[in-house]
Design a protein that fits this description.
By secondary structure, the chain is α/β, with parallel strands linked by helices. It has one domain: 3-Layer(aba) Sandwich (Rossmann fold), CATH 3.40.50.1820. Helices cover 37% and strands 18% of the residues. The protein has five helices and seven strands. A seven-stranded mixed β-sheet has the order 1-3-2-4-5-6-7, with helices on both faces. Strand 4, helix 3 and strand 5 form a beta-alpha-beta unit. It is globular and about 45 Å long. It starts with 12 loop residues before the first strand and ends with a helix. Keywords: Hydrolase. This is Alpha-beta hydrolase superfamily lysophospholipase. It comes from Nocardioides zeae.
Length: 223
């Protein structure tokens, strides 16, 4: 059994839980962006975390009404640093499973958060990944995605990460058995400052889609 030390701490999670009068049916775990290298701690001034928090405030009420909690993870450090956020995401998934055992989780990641998500997508509770302007370098592993869903949205004006690389990643994920799709965000850039409603709608609707599919699968397995 996991000890408290193995779980993401309270201060690392900004939670919008389902109202007490409703049944919790699953979780959207949000994973924010970052930098390739940085040893700076993530705090409330981090632009990447603040963008994710703004999206959480917009999409969480609808998700809560449908029975889904929305938890935003704050990494310890701002940098990828060879995969440091993966450790934090694994701890957050242990936390969701400890508090809400067996309920499906959708990983909603922006940029580095999407890269983090595809590394932990093989956790037993994960139904799929919703990736916004993801950072998928050439050769990025798809090993955690067979049997999972992947929904990617990327803008043509992104100069930080590559929409073309995202399309190639989706194709590789589909080739190993993922239910993977790519949608263009049009002439949107990386930081989701423009076409905000489009990003929010995609994040919310695709998360609802994947969680609903997970519940259909659970119902079918119980017949």
């Amino acid at each position: 059994m996991d000890t408290a030390r193995d779980l993401a701490p309270d201060h690392a999670l900004t939670r919008v839980d389902v109202p007490d009068d409703r049944e919790t049916r699953g979780v959207v775990l949000m994973l924010h962006g970052g930098k390739e290298h940085s040893d700076r701690a993530v705090d409330g001034r981090s632009a990447s975390w603040r963008r994710a928090a703004a999206m959480q405030r917009t999409i969480a009420p609808t998700l809560a009404e449908a029975g889904y909690a929305t938890w935003l993870l704050r990494y310890r450090l701002r940098g990828w640093n060879g995969g440091a956020p993966v450790v934090d995401a694994e701890a957050a998934l242990r936390r969701t499973d400890a508090e809400l055992p067996g309920l499906p989780v959708v990983l909603l990641g922006h940029s580095m958060g999407a890269r983090t998500a595809v590394h932990v997508a093989d956790h037993p509770t994960v139904a799929g990944v919703v990736a916004l302007a993801p950072w998928f370098p050439p050769g990025e592993s798809v090993a955690a995605l067979p049997g999972r869903a992947l929904r990617v949205m990327h803008g043509a004006r992104d100069r930080i990460t590559s929409a073309r690389a995202s399309q190639a990643y989706v194709e590789r994920a589909a080739a190993v058995g993922a239910d993977a799709t790519f949608v263009s965000a049009g002439l949107a850039g990386h930081y989701m400052f423009t076409h905000v409603a489009r990003w929010n709608t995609f994040a919310r609707e695709r998360s609802l889609e994947l969680l609903a599919a997970a519940h259909r699968g659970l119902s079918d397995s119980e017949r």
